[in-house]
Amino acid sequence: MNNNIVLPEILSPAGNFEKMKAAERFGADAVYLAGREFGMRSAADNFSVGELMDAVEYMHLRGKKVYLTVNTLPRGDEYPRLREFLSDISGFGIDGFICADLGVIALIKELIPDGEIHISTQASICSPAAAKAYCALGARRLVLARELSLKEIKDIRDAIPDDVDLECFVHGSMCVSWSGRCMLSNMLVGRDANRGACAQPCRWNYTVYEEKRPDTPIPIEENALGTFIMSSKDMCMIEHVGELAEAGITSFKIEGRIKSVYYTAVVTNAYRMALNALSLHIKAGGKASDFRPDPLILNELMSVSHREYCTGFYFDSPTDNPQLVSVPGYVRDKAYLAVAGEQSPDDGSDGSLLYSFTQRNKFSVGDRAELLTPGRPGRAFTVTEIYDEEGNRVESAPHPLQKIRVSVPFRVLEGDILRAGDPD
């Protein structure tokens, strides 16, 4: 590619094996995941030692990579368990270890000498000096603090060796605290955010009490919906992938290990489509920073559950614009109706083919639906026929995990997703 731009890696979240498979199928180059301990998302299903081995084999067979998060800040009494865990997985061929603690880094170097060290965003790398210091320790990848501007990222890129990767978050939830260093959850409910157990109290509603009037609570208000003094917007950088690539970011990280399979598939697919289009744009002689993806790709990201979107702090200083939400809660996603199974389609009575699906949410004949296939936006159609596992024609699929066949006017492949469509 011209301009010396390398197309960034898409790094997707894998909270469990099903989400990992969806990420791989919909375009991820790599996934990040955790064992049952020592990862920053303890609420995710995560992976047993045996599942980790199977996950690495699954991804490597498909030419993809696996990065393991070991990015909590372990206490002294946890190190014997950490040593045992790392010894158990030392021969799996994990492609990178995401760490924030110097003790953890030292232990990985001792037990897995050829293990590639990735410095977690929890380390809050926000200067060329810090970046160079971690490079001197042997880090092969730096996951930069989310609070950096695009210019600051460029400055770090210029200061470190070319063979050290820069990984940055491009999509998903943002923490109101600097790179996740927060004690609020621990203080209020005894769940330590720095050990993967954040209860997200920054999303809660709060009330002010005047010191001499404790029985007169005053809701914090800005408008009829209230104000949300700590809850951050969600990041969405899909319209700026060219600028990020031009800045020297080599890995686009998607947040969301505790989010749904549907979320993983849709967001990964959207960024894959955007990067594929960016590649064509550059090959045609276009400037990366001038690239803007098709609006249909942005629409895909509107179909998943999210808070108000923003561009993080790439273009705004946290002190000038803290990116706090203005309305409560989430913008809800389109319903995830079914996932396609192994296919041997039959002829439907309306000329379409009948394809096999496993139901995830109820839908009925006459409903509008969309088929999501890797590499393209959802394609809309009307459901005209549904058959149950015994071949009986039915009006709806109301039972969770029900095996059904559905008339679809497009070719369906195993792993494709059926979701609710917009009304005509």
Could you walk me through the main structural features you see in this protein, from its secondary elements to its overall organization?
Strands 13, 14, 15, 17, 18, 19, 20, 22 and 23 form a 9-stranded antiparallel β-sheet that branches. Strands 1-2-3-4-5-6-7-11 form an 8-stranded parallel beta barrel, surrounded by 5 helices. The chain has a two-stranded antiparallel sheet with strand order 8-9. About 1% of the residues have low confidence. The chain starts with 8 loop residues before the first strand and ends with a strand. With 424 residues, it is an alpha/beta fold. The longest helix is centred in the middle third of the chain and has 23 residues. It is globular. Helix content is 25%, strand content 22%. The chain has 10 helices and 23 strands.
Number of DSSP strand runs? 23
Gyration radius (Cα, Å) is: 23 Å
Structural class: alpha/beta
State the low-pLDDT regions, or none. Answer: 222-227
Summed up, the helix count is 10
Mean pLDDT: 88
In terms of DSSP E residues, the strand content is 15-25%
Assign an overall shape: globular
- In which range does the helix fraction lie? 10-25%
The main pleated sheet reads as: 9 strands, antiparallel
**What distance lies between the first and last C-alpha atoms, to the nearest angstrom?**
42 Å
